[in-house]
Amino acid sequence: xxxxxxxxxxxxxxxxxxxxxxxxxxxxxxxxxxxxxxxxxxxxxxxxxxxxxxxxxxxxxxxxxxxxxxxxxxxxxxxxxxxxxxxxxxxxxxxxxxxxxxxxxxxxxxxxxxxxxxxxxxxxxxxxxxxxxxxxxxxxxxxxxxxxxxxxxxxxxxxxxxxxxxxxxxxxxxxxxxxxxxxxxxxxxxxxxxxxxxxxxxxxxxxxxxxxxxxxxxxxxxxxxxxxxxxxxxxxxxxxxxxxxxxxxxxxxxxxxxxxxxxxxxxxxxxxxxxxxxxxxxxxxxxxxxxxxxxxxxxxxxxxxxxxxxxxxxxxxxxxxxxxxxxxxxxxxxxxxxxxxxxxxxxxxxxxxxxxxxxxxxxxxxxxxxxxxxxxxxxxxxxxxxxxxxxxxxxxxxxxxxxxxxxxxxxxxxxxxxxxxxxxxxxxxxxxxxxxxxxxxxxxxxxxxxxxxxxxxxxxxxxxxxxxxxxxxxxxxxxxxxxxxxxxxxxxxxxxxxxxxxxxxxxxxxxxxx
Length: 514
Description:
By secondary structure, this protein is an alpha/beta fold. It is built from 21 helices and six strands. It has a six-stranded mixed beta sheet with strand order 1-3-2-4-6-5. Helix 1 (5-27) packs parallel to helix 7 and helix 11 (214-229) runs antiparallel to helix 12 (235-260). It starts with a helix and ends with a strand.
């Protein structure tokens, strides 16, 4: 039973309206949200600095003007070689996004003064490009425009994609390349030409240079090809192997950097490890799935959404030939299994981090889109109406949550716990006349402050904690001083310390009163 033409038109019109809203959400209030630690690291690296270099140049004990810290906000006096050197120091993050961001920021900062909005706008552009890529991929997989329209609407209004469009990190690029590369694979298998396979090879290299976890997408592609084409010396399989190898070879320079920086890569991996209970993982998995579609606090009701997604995957498999459903399933499963299984065995928590499973969640959105598209053609009219209502509910909740998130300065992906310290602490500094912030804290924390405080603020940074001289007629603040330094300050004549902001005894701001 096919949908009437009027209903097809209404469905398309609804999807177009939602897509327009999704575009609007992605480009609105880019500079408004809290600029958190990972984004500060992005700015440092595209500016050509490592944390060690910031310490070397600025942690001298001399009083620094606010403008002197602007050098770490966006590229000014450092070269592209400096940026590459800073990126090579952190090889766990491939360079494509950061190099693109450097050139992007350098160009647009000639006309705009808001470095936060300019830096984030590149992620917004990548997220915008992912919208037509989602449509194209679904057309390639299903040859059905209705599935493509529904999937595009779900991706466009997804709170997950919108929030990370406002994040100066590489995740929007990863999503874009995952969609594009998967679409090129399907097209190349259907039309095995040198041009198509060449573009596919290039997309593999782009994906690997975007995020190391794109390797799991490439593995999913390999599983799909060999499962559908068989392990044989066919022209198609050989073309695929040549393209994949070529894509890997294009990435080999960065592989060499990773190998030569093994200690740093291992350190970065270990930073994400911590032992957690299995129940915690299950809770986070369910909650993260909610954030893909609703970003609402549903608690145990998230279990219903999990069942809904499993049903969507079941319908996808039941009603399509293997060549159609297997690519979506392998992308979802490969990304998830490689993170979930180690967490279950060793009690680690990487699979609890939503940003590591973008490929899986994007595949799930495609499966859900196919479910809706299929159910719109149910034999019974009441079933059609019910599924239309459910689809509209998905879009409505996504639209509402997107509008709400636009008004929030702090969202869950911005390290909301730490933001609850930095924002009020910076407000206290901004209320004081002639403020001076003294600390030995690491550059990321100091620079996080520098995005919040007024330009009149000065900084005095030390490598090792010692009792500084407090200038007269200044409002002096100490950021995370040790108990020993606190005692030394309070022992000074006519001097007291007042705790003005505290977050879980981990982040503290004291004001020196004399």
